[in-house]
């Protein structure tokens, strides 16, 4: 059997690594700006493009898809070639993958601050960008599967299993959740509405965390940790159980984001049950990682790379224990809509994804430049800055969460809400927001230390773009009948991929199909619920564009504390025309589902112009541009047409009267404002937004509690 000579492609890995560092620094800087605005709203500098609502999705997209995404590609392209003993299937596809992904990220940078967003968590980008993401992801998949097929290594190592699962599942999640009907090039409406949209979104949202932030990183852990520790992975059989149990169970857990909402109880229970079961395989991965270091713990003290990896795996273990705990209804009742969720996500993001990425970069860059790390001392400095940053970030958020969650539910001895004004609970936690921002600053400072260290490392070495390698050609497998069953599967990549696809599809099918089979009439049990008027629909789109859902929920849960504060709890039938749903994930401000008719039009006008004039001490930024900018009156007929195609019962031919209808409703609001001494015009964005806010929660007759 002859030895074949070939070359590993390090150049594309280098570019992905550079992109990882650059986008990571930018994404975290935007996150720091967003964190600062929670206690100093003027930090947006009076600019509509830098308000919290606009830049929060920019931060999440930059960190998830730009920082982590590029790190995944860098790690996969580096490790896969070496695990499979071959160059990547196609250099051209590698570079299409790289440049296509950077263009997608740039498009996010351009559109999100402009308010061009679907508002769906982790899926905010509009339909043309969604199509581009799908195409580039397929390019990545073809390159990966092609490389596996032309490998020189008989068996696929565990890291490859996780890469395959990540590719298949992200493709399925992204395509299903992105179903939408375009209105124009930069605007679309979700194919799903209300409860169905919520279920699809969190089936996607939870599993985007699972199969973009978790499974590819587990694959990277299985490759880079043994390399850095110079130890074999602890247990092959544990990795088998870990892999199959994790990918099968994870896909079911999404509904735990929607506990106590209008989602059917069976779906909530299903999400909770599978979330609790997830602890076992998740901790199996953590144990397999940490026990790989048996006999090497003395090196952890000296080696900053191992330090980063140990903390990363520990943070992973904490996050995957906390997730199932948060899916328990008694815990969720206090934690949801508070900063606990923010802390939970960032333990995973900063600790697991961030620290493992740093460890991989510190290991990989010297390898490709054929040199030693420039400074272990600087790497250790980065480690401690990052660790302290996580502590200063997370601990204040836990304190904030428990404080606010309990204050929301506090009653006096007479049975009256102790803190009826939501703002009083927000003001209580502002010091925690300051500490959180300080933690973010520490973490970001460590990143800049790393940037300097890696640049100096590269300068002292010589980059090898095409690294020479050799390996025997792959022999045709001949079964002896005694081979371990999973070893047989590992020799059959196409069969393995099909099995993986079946494992991840089962959960989605059993959760989503019953929801899809429900017709609108099956959900609508409230005859008084009507479609939005053209002006209200435009106001809703402005609300979405400004990112208001990032701070305000529209879901009153069936707790006495919430019905006393906001009014009647939310019903599934109220959301049948909501595309997308706007139930929210975090309350930085009060819930708005029953805000309609609660305040006069002038209150909303003044509140958007200067929030503190209506709510002294408010941390909401002013929105003066809504008073001066006009909405697109000409575009309203197209929006109505699109909604009708999606099943909203607007009458045929209504488009001819849309503009007249909108201006008639706007004139009433203008007259109402004029009566209170405020001059405006019917085409002003503020008028459309007021129309929407005054509609919220008024379809069913309830007595709304005063705040």
UniProtKB/TrEMBL annotation:
Membrane topology reported for the UniProt record: Multi-pass membrane protein
Pathway note: Energy metabolism; oxidative phosphorylation
Residue spans crossing the bilayer: 12-40, 60-80, 92-115, 127-149, 161-183, 203-224, 236-253, 273-293, 305-321, 341-363, 383-402, 433-455, 494-513
GO cellular component: plasma membrane
InterPro entries reported in the protein's UniProt record: Cyt_c-like_dom, Cyt_c-like_dom_sf, Cyt_c_oxase-like_su1_dom, Cyt_c_oxase-like_su1_sf, Cyt_C_Oxase_1, Cyt_c_Oxase_su1_BS, Cyt_c_oxidase_cbb3_su1, Cyt_c_oxidase_monohaem-su/FixO
Domain Cytochrome c: 534-697
Residues that hold heme b 2; high-spin according to the record: 344
Cofactor binding remark: Binds 1 copper ion per subunit, denoted as copper B. Binds 2 heme groups per subunit, denoted as high- and low-spin.
Pfam families in alphabetical order: COX1, FixO
Ranges where the Cytochrome oxidase subunit I profile domain occurs: 15-496
Names of required cofactors: Cu(2+); heme b; heme
Subcellular location: Cell membrane
UniProt superkingdom: Bacteria
Reactions mediated catalytically: 4 Fe(II)-[cytochrome c] + O2 + 8 H(+)(in) = 4 Fe(III)-[cytochrome c] + 2 H2O + 4 H(+)(out)
The EC number(s) this enzyme carries: 7.1.1.9
Chain residues that bind heme b 1; low-spin: 59, 346
Coiled coil: none
Record-listed Cu cation binding positions: 206, 256-257
Protein name as catalogued: cytochrome-c oxidase
């Amino acid at each position: 059997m002859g030895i074949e000579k070939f070359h590993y492609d390090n150049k594309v890995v280098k570019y992905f690594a550079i992109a990882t560092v650059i986008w990571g620094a930018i994404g975290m800087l935007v996150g720091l700006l967003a964190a600062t605005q929670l206690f100093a709203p003027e930090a947006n500098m009076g600019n509509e493009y830098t308000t919290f609502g606009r830049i929060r999705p920019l931060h999440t997209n930059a960190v998830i898809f730009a920082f982590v995404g590029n790190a995944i590609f860098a790690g996969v392209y580096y490790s896969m070639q070496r695990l499979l003993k071959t160059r990547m299937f196609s250099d051209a596809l590698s570079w299409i993958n790289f440049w296509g992904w950077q263009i997608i990220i740039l498009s996010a940078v351009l559109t999100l601050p402009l308010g061009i967003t679907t508002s769906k968590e982790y899926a905010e980008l509009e339909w043309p960008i969604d199509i581009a993401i799908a195409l580039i992801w397929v390019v990545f998949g073809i390159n990966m599967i092609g490389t596996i097929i032309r490998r020189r290594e008989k068996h696929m190592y565990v890291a490859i299993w996780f890469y395959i699962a990540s590719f298949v599942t992200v493709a399925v999640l992204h395509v299903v959740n992105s179903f939408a009907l375009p209105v124009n090039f930069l605007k679309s409406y979700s194919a799903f509405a209300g409860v169905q949209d919520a279920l699809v979104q969190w089936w996607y949202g939870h599993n985007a965390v699972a199969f973009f932030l978790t499974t590819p990183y587990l694959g990277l852990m299985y490759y880079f940790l043994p390399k850095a520790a110079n130890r074999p992975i602890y247990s092959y059989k544990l990795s088998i159980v870990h892999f199959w149990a994790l990918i099968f169970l994870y896909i079911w857990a999404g509904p735990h984001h929607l506990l106590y909402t209008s989602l059917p109880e069976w779906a909530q229970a299903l999400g909770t049950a599978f979330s609790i079961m997830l602890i076992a395989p998740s901790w199996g991965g953590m144990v397999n990682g940490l026990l790989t270091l048996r006999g090497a713990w003395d090196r952890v003290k000296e080696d900053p790379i191992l330090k980063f990896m140990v903390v990363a795996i520990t943070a992973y273990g904490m996050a995957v224990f906390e997730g199932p705990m948060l899916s328990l209804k008694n815990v969720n009742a206090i934690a949801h809509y508070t900063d606990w969720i923010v802390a939970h996500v960032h333990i995973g993001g900063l600790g697991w994804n961030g620290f493992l990425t740093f460890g991989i970069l510190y290991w990989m860059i010297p390898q490709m430049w054929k040199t030693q790390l420039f400074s272990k001392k600087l790497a250790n400095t980065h480690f401690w800055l990052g660790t302290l940053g996580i502590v200063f970030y997370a601990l204040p958020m836990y304190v904030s969460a428990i404080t606010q969650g309990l204050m929301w539910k506090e009653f006096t001895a007479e049975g009256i809400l102790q803190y009826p004004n939501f703002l009083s609970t927000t003001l209580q936690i502002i010091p925690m927001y300051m500490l959180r921002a300080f933690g973010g600053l520490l973490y970001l400072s460590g990143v800049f230390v790393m940037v300097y260290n890696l640049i100096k490392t590269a300068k002292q070495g010589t980059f090898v773009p095409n690294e020479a390698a050799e390996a025997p050609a792959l022999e045709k497998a001949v079964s002896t009948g005694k081979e371990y069953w999973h070893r047989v599967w590992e020799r059959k990549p196409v069969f393995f991929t099909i099995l993986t696809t079946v494992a991840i599809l089962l959960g989605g099918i059993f959760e989503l199909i019953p929801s899809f089979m429900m017709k609108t009439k099956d959900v609508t049990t409230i005859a008084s619920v009507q479609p939005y008027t053209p002006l209200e629909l435009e106001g809703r789109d402005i609300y979405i564009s400004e990112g208001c859902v990032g701070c305000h929920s529209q879901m009153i849960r069936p707790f006495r504390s919430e019905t006393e504060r906001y009014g009647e709890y939310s019903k599934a039938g109220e959301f049948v025309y909501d595309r997308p749903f706007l139930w929210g994930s975090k309350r930085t401000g009060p819930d708005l589902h029953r805000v309609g008719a609660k305040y006069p039009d002038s209150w909303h006008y003044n509140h958007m112009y200067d929030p503190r004039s209506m709510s002294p001490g408010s941390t909401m930024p002013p929105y003066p541009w809504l008073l001066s900018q006009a909405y697109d009156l000409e575009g309203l007929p197209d929006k109505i047409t699109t909604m009708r195609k999606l099943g909203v019962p607007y009458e045929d031919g209504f488009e001819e009267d849309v503009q007249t209808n909108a201006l008639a409703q706007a004139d009433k609001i203008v007259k109402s404002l004029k009566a209170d001494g405020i001059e405006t015009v019917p085409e002003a964005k503020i008028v459309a937004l007021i129309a929407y806010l005054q509609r919220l929660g008024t379809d069913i007759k309830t007595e709304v509690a005063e705040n």
